[in-house]
Specification:
alpha+beta; 8-stranded mixed sheet; 4 helices; 8 strands; globular; 215 residues; single chain; 23% strand
Length: 215
C-alpha cells in the first residue's frame, strides 16, 4: 500500500523559488500569515467551523500548512520562542495570534506571525541577507527580488497562467493543487518520492505542539 500526504504550499512555485535562492548561506526572514476567522468561510457561522475548535483551531491549522514549506526553504527547525495571546472578541478558547522566533539548523533565522485576526487576508514574506532581498505579498504577481547592481526591485514571474476560485482570498491559487496531484500520480505510478513525507509531517506536528505549549 502507498500512502501520500498533502502539503500544498510545498508545491507553490514562489516557495520553490525562495528555497533555491537561499541555498548556500544563512538568511533571515519575516513572515506574516493571517486572516480574520469569520472571513475564512463567510457563507457559514464560524462557530460551526472546525477552525473555531480548540483542538483543530485556525492558528494550529495554518501553522501545519505553512511550516512544511518554511522548513523546505530555510532548513529544519531547531528551536522556537513563542509569544501568544488574544486581541479579538472572537468566541474562542485559544490564542488568536502567535509571534514566533524560529532558529533553523542551517543558520537561518525567522520571525513568523500567525493569526486569525488580520482583517485583510495576507501572506507577506521578506527574505534578506547581504546578497539577496526578496519580497512576496502572497499573490502570484507580487514576487519581487532586489537587483543589487541596478539597485531596483524587479518582479519575478513564475506563472504563464493562474487558476483561481473567486470565493477565496487572492493569495489562494489552484495551480499548486494541480502540481500536487501530478506528484501523487508520479508516486503511485512511477515510485517517485513525494516532496513531503509522513516523517516530515511528524516533525511538523511536534513543532506545532511546542508552539502551542503542548510539549
Amino acid at each position: 500500500m502507498k500512502l501520500f500526504i498533502s502539503s500544498t504550499p510545498v508545491y507553490r512555485r514562489e516557495m520553490r523559488y525562495v528555497a533555491e535562492a537561499v541555498k548556500g548561506a544563512p538568511v533571515n526572514y519575516l513572515y506574516h500569515c493571517g486572516q480574520y476567522l469569520p472571513d475564512w468561510h463567510p457563507w457559514e457561522d464560524y462557530h460551526s467551523f472546525f477552525a473555531a475548535k480548540k483542538e483543530t483551531n485556525g492558528c494550529r491549522e495554518i501553522l501545519c500548512v505553512e511550516l512544511p514549506w518554511i522548513e523546505k526553504a530555510f532548513g529544519r527547525i531547531e528551536s522556537v520562542q513563542v509569544m501568544s495571546g488574544r486581541i479579538t472578541s472572537l468566541d474562542i478558547d485559544f490564542p488568536d495570534h502567535y509571534m514566533i522566533a524560529i532558529r533553523h539548523a542551517s543558520g537561518c533565522k525567522g520571525m513568523y506571525c500567525q493569526d486569525i485576526v488580520s482583517r485583510k487576508g495576507l501572506r507577506r514574506l521578506e527574505v534578506f541577507s547581504e546578497k539577496l532581498h526578496i519580497f512576496w505579498e502572497g499573490t502570484p504577481d507580487s514576487l519581487a527580488a532586489y537587483d543589487l547592481e541596478a539597485k531596483t526591485l524587479k518582479p519575478v514571474c513564475l506563472y504563464d497562467d493562474v487558476v483561481q476560485d473567486g470565493r477565496y482570498n487572492a493569495n489562494i491559487i489552484e495551480n499548486a493543487y494541480a502540481d500536487e496531484i501530478r506528484a501523487f500520480f508520479d508516486y503511485v505510478e512511477k515510485g517517485v518520492t513525494p516532496p513531503y513525507t509522513f516523517e516530515e509531517d511528524g516533525h511538523t506536528l511536534d513543532v506545532v505542539d511546542e508552539i502551542e505549549g503542548l510539549k
